[in-house]
Structure formats: C-alpha cells, structure tokens
Amino acid sequence: MVTKRRVRAAQRIGVLVVLSLAACGSGGPDVASKACTSMGLDPSGVSVNISGLSTGSGVAIVVCTPLKCTTANQKYTDAYRSPVPNAGIKSVDPVKITVTVRDAAGQVLVPKKTLTVTPMRNQPNGAGCNPIGYFATVDVAASSAAANS
Question: Taking the CB of residue 24, how many other CB atoms lie within 10 A of it?
C-alpha cells in the first residue's frame, strides 16, 4: 500500500536526481560559472640572461630543443634577459636545450651551451582558462674573447 510518507520520499528522491543530473550536464558550478579574462601570453619559450657583453649591438640567440630550433634577433645589454619563443617547450617536464649567441657579423659570443631546464607553467587567466604557456630561464656568459672585442 502506498502511503503519503512513501510518496513524499519518492518525490524528494526524484528532485535530488533531477538536480544531480542538471549539475552533471553543466560541468558543475565551478566550470559553468567560470569567467575567464582575456589576457594574452607570449609563446612558450626560454628567457636567456647574457652576462659579460657591452651594450649596443644586436645579437642572434639560438635556442634548440629536441623538437625545434628558434632564433631571436635582439639588442643586448649587460645581463640582458631575452625571450626566445620555442614551440619545443610544451610542459613542465625537464627538457634538454642548447643556447648559442652570435653577433650581427656571425661571431660567436656565447659558445653552444647544453643545459637541462624545467619550465614553469603560466596561465594568466586562471586555472581552466587559456592560454597556457611554459617558460624557462637560463644564464649564459659571453666568452672572454667576445667580451673583450
């Protein structure tokens, strides 16, 4: 025999099921109501700090990963931090890179240096929002011959 008590219990269960299904379909309250900002982000890559060079001339900084080599042509200053975009930096996993720096005439200022870096993740618009970038920083020094030229 169906009592009023059982009917009310069934109605409560039905309401809970409907609410649960509605939450599942929306991705939950955090995802459904998440508002992302629209801040941009430089491409993933490596910032290269160069020490031991005088200011003024342009340099070509080459950064290679196992997947890709990229070159950034920059002006340098003492202890210059130069961003070099590189699509081979794809995660926070350690990656082996090589860095070489040449002047505009092609003279090697920083001989090829091999390093293992651990990039940091950057998500300027917050968790769950794009863009996502991965960045590492390395310090290199000009060879004594280049610094004295």
Answer: 9
